[in-house]
Write a structure and sequence with these properties.
Blueprint (H helix, E strand, L loop, with lengths): L4 H18 L1 H10 L4 H22 L9 H18 L2 H5 L6 H12 L15 H16 L1 H8 L5 H10 L12 H25 L4 H12 L16 H14 L3 H8 L3 H5 L2 H26 L3 H15 L14 H13 L12 H19 L8 E2 L2 E2 L2 H27 L4 H12 L13 H5 L4 H15 L3 H5 L3 H5 L2
Antiparallel strand pairs: 1-2
Helix pairs in contact: 1-3, 1-4, 2-3, 2-7, 4-6, 4-9, 6-7, 6-22, 7-11, 8-9, 8-10, 10-11, 10-12, 10-13, 11-12, 12-16, 15-16, 15-17, 16-17, 18-19, 19-20, 19-22, 20-22
Length: about 475
């Protein structure tokens, strides 16, 4: 099999150059606040820029724009590995971490929008580094490959293959018949959500860094926070804004586009959106009732916490105000289930995704119907349209691999000294790109991972990557059959 290696290097080089340029903003923030991290950030930006220019202008020089089907899978995996590895340099050069393992863990967690962290003391952390952490989440939120498609429109058919590799295992509706235009509209929606939330948070009296970091982490459903107490110090107004935007970030971006363009009925007819909405409402009521029954009090504050908590879990954003040790047992179980199910397809959220759950549920239902009525002909339908049987098999295969990876990840973590419940929750949280363990930790994401053994941290990195790449893309390049096909 012949791969277009030159195009891969040229594309990767362009992404690294863009990443190096994007680091100028954290550098400027660091200089403004005088936090001392600007030198490490500038050194990291310089190194990334040199590597990017070398790949783009030398190794990738003269590359053709031809992309084969397997190129798309290979491009996706390499880009999603190399970019976060280079993104680890700012953490090393600012001496924020003591090892490359910790730097890579933090970087992969950012770009995959997982939100797990090995850092502590956020209130004393350099402002420039906080901005870089959130920027990495925002870059990875909509997808590195979608950024490639947006800037390399000359790929034509190849762009479609890259687009499909980013949404491996799902059926994502385009916003426009032309792929380049569709991807551009997705970025417009993404940027608009970020800017609006940033303005709202600034209007609420939050500082520039807090507003920027929280807006980018919310819309990307990344979940990196800027304070040791999580979101507990934010005002009621800010929490309401964040809750609303977390919920929207968990929606399919095509549904958001329909809403923004005034096509409310079209959005309302989407079965996945209705399922996402109803599950969120039901989960909020269960959470509210559990807290009231456990003695939390019947109050507006309890309702507000329930709305915020459910939106954070179902969107896989991972923000928190109090740790799971303060929650009723039912809330912890509910959180675990919401994280496992996840957000909508075509969103920045993680998890299994709502549409897959719908397809699996209807597939199982049809199986039992065929047992009772062997002569009946049943098809899985979504939005009134029959889902291709091949795609139904793909969804069931995805569910199987998802559970297998959680099991294997949990198995490794038990050898790192974790008990089974904690290991299971941690593995589920990371493959679902949530971050904080939904049950076992006492304060938040950072307590879970600081003391974790290196083998455990790299296992979590693999789970983060598998969850962000929808498993199939990552597994495909590991199969001998992938390389043997003509």
């Amino acid at each position: 099999m012949r791969l277009n290696i030159r195009l891969l290097f040229r594309t990767l080089g362009m992404l690294l150059v863009i990443m190096a340029v994007s680091m100028l903003f954290p550098v400027a923030v660091s200089v403004y606040y005088g936090d001392g991290s600007q030198y490490g950030l500038m050194l990291a930006a310089f190194c990334i820029l040199v590597v990017g220019l070398f790949l783009r202008n030398f190794i990738g020089a003269g590359a053709s724009n031809e992309v084969h089907a397997r190129d798309g899978v290979w491009f996706t995996v390499v880009i999603w590995i190399v970019v976060p590895l280079m993104g680890a340099l700012p953490y090393l050069f600012t001496s924020s971490v003591q090892s490359f393992t910790d730097a890579a863990f933090e970087s992969f967690s950012g770009f995959t929008t997982t939100g797990s962290s090995v850092l502590s003391g956020f209130d004393q952390m350099p402002q420039g580094l906080l901005v870089w952490r959130s920027t990495s989440q925002w870059i990875g939120g909509l997808g590195l490959i979608l950024f490639v498609v947006a800037i390399l429109r000359r790929l034509n058919v190849g762009a479609a293959r890259l687009y499909e590799s980013e949404f491996s295992g799902t059926l994502q509706r385009r916003l426009h018949p032309r792929l380049g235009r569709s991807v551009a509209l997705m970025w417009v929606v993404y940027i608009a959500l970020t800017v609006v939330l940033f303005v709202l948070l600034m209007a609420g009296g939050n500082g520039f860094v807090d507003s920027f970091c929280t807006a980018t982490s919310t819309v990307s459903t990344g979940g990196f926070m800027t304070h040791d107490d999580g979101m507990a110090s934010y005002s009621t107004y800010s929490m309401c804004c964040i809750t609303l935007f977390m919920f929207m970030a968990g929606m399919n971006i095509s549904v958001l586009y329909s809403i923004f363009t005034g096509k409310w009925r079209e959005a309302g007819r989407d079965e996945e959106f209705r399922t996402y909405f109803m599950i969120s409402i039901a989960a909020t009521l269960v959470c509210f009732a559990s807290i009231v029954i456990s003695g939390g009090g019947l109050s507006v504050g309890t309702l507000g916490f329930s709305l915020f908590h459910v939106a954070s879990a179902v969107s896989t954003c991972g923000f928190y105000t109090t740790g799971p040790s303060y929650w009723p047992a039912m809330v912890s179980v509910l959180t675990f289930l919401l994280v496992f199910v996840g957000a909508s397809t075509g969103s920045t959220g993680g998890g299994l995704k709502m549409k897959r759950i719908m397809i699996v549920g209807r597939g199982v239902r049809n199986y039992f119907v065929s047992m009772v009525h062997p002569q009946s002909v049943t098809r899985v339908k979504v939005n009134g349209r029959a889902v291709d049987e091949e795609h139904v098999r793909v969804v069931f295969s995805f569910l199987f691999l998802y559970v297998v990876l959680i099991t294997l990840g949990s198995f490794v973590l038990t050898f790192c000294g974790l008990d089974i419940p904690n290991a299971l929750c941690m593995a589920t949280a990371n493959i679902g790109n949530l971050g904080p363990s939904p049950v076992a930790n006492s304060i938040g994401a950072r307590i879970d991972y600081i003391s974790l053994a290196p083998v455990g941290k790299w296992t979590m990195v693999l789970l983060m990557l598998a969850g962000r790449l929808e498993i199939f893309t990552l597994v495909a390049v590991l199969l001998p059959q992938y390389w043997k096909r003509s």
